[in-house]
Amino acid sequence: MISRRGLLALASAGALCLPLAACGGSAPDAGGPVKITVWTWKPASDGLAAVAKDFEKDNPGIKVDVQAIGNPAIWEKITIGMAAGGKGLGDVLHIGVDYLPSYTEKFPGGLADLRTLGAEKYKDAFAKGLWPTVLGKDGGVYAMPWEVNPAGLFYRSDLFQKAGIDVAGIKTWDDLIEAGKTLKAKTGAFLIGLNKPAAGSPDMDFYQMLLQQQGAFYFDREGEVTLGSAPAVQAMGLIKKMNDAGIVADTSGEGTSKKLIGAGRLAVLPWPAWAVSYIPEMRPEQKGLWRVMSPPAFAVGGKRAAIVNSTYLSVSGSSPHKAEAFKFVEYALTRPEVVNKVFRQGGVFPALTAAYADPMYSAPNPYYGGQPALKTFTDSLGEGADATYYSSDYARALKIASDAQTQVLTKGADPAGALSQAARLLAQQTNRKLAAG
To answer: Which of 51, 61, 82, 176 sits at a 20 to 30 Å CA gap from 94?
Structure first.
């Protein structure tokens, strides 16, 4: 079975001629209200459907059909539509930051340039680091930020207390490693868990978070390969240091991570903002035991913020109702009261900075011992995170970086050597240049 990313690669080479599914985008209307379709997935679709009703009341000439296509099904469906010249696509498309560059680079015209509809006036309205990722190489605006997930460290406060560790004293990653050694000795719990024979995302999420915290990634803004850069080596070196200290649990195997969490064997979960609601659902019996903090810095006084992933709303380039589609996108993403309604009903942490003035972001959360957990993430976004440039070759980079991490964690490979080799391989396979330095 071909993977969704393999499908995208084939489509870009003109090798795809597949029939379109029946539930596609809207056709020109013969009369009556304009109808636009929105492609997304659950639970985000629940929030969008709720605000779509409000939108229709304010805009009686437009009807909105929110379709929960599913994830990952939506990526294949979008790719098939774009490969067919836009035929059958929804008018509004929910797209992840890792897929957006592939669509803009491999399917010119597949997404509408929202500059023509006034999108540029919102460039400063969203969390720092997001707007550069919606821009194409031609300067076009091909999406509007919807969801942002800043990095955080969820930790078992009871384990830290049992080990006699003052979390407030943890300022750097080296501080956390020393705390991890104490935790393991006094509680038997591992600091973090990683799938050591990594098979790709999400097994690389922690490494990517460490890159993003340094304003680095697999590629730079010019599309050159940075997998062998100093930040990349420092991030992998940090993971090796943790592993060598015996404080990293191997979470490979089905359900291993959840079992370790349930047994209190993992003291820290380096997860982004969506986990604020996910952890209580996963482990309701551990209410009051968890807390959250920003990741430590690499050096005292260094940056702690990182945006680990984000999603967007785009308008299909083939939509016969681009103006109406953008009007809905604008309504859904640029009004604090609207994006917060989506957040409450669909669990999508909003990218719109004005939304954070709502009292819910500073409200005590009983599950986290009364800590205002969401405020940790809004404070992090206030510090400012850097943009991440995924490029159209992210899937290939992810596999190569994953192989390098596996070598480091399972065979003790030197991070600098493993990543230098990985960077050269990535450059060769993608015909990209190695970034200087």
So the answer is: 61
Average pLDDT on 199-212 reads 89
Residue 155 burial (C-beta neighbours within 10 Å; 0-12, 13-18, 19+): buried
Residue 7 scores a pLDDT above 70: no
Longest alpha-carbon distance in the chain: 72
Q: 332, 339 in Cβ contact below 8 A? A: yes
- In whole angstroms, give the CA distance from residue 209 to residue 344: 26
* 365: β partners: 371
Q: Residue 238 corresponds to which tokens in the numbers above?
A: 């940090």
**Residue 14 pLDDT class (50, 70, 90 cuts):** very low
Radius of gyration (C-alpha) of the chain in whole angstroms: 22
Residue entry with tokens 């991030």: 235
**What global pTM score does this model have?**
0.91
**294: Cβ–Cβ under 8 A, 6 or more apart, which residues?**
151, 152, 153, 304, 305, 376, 379, 380
- Output the CA torsion 363→367→370→372 (10° steps): -40
Domains present along the chain, CATH in parentheses: 4-149+309-373 (3.40.190.10), 153-306+388-430 (3.40.190.10)
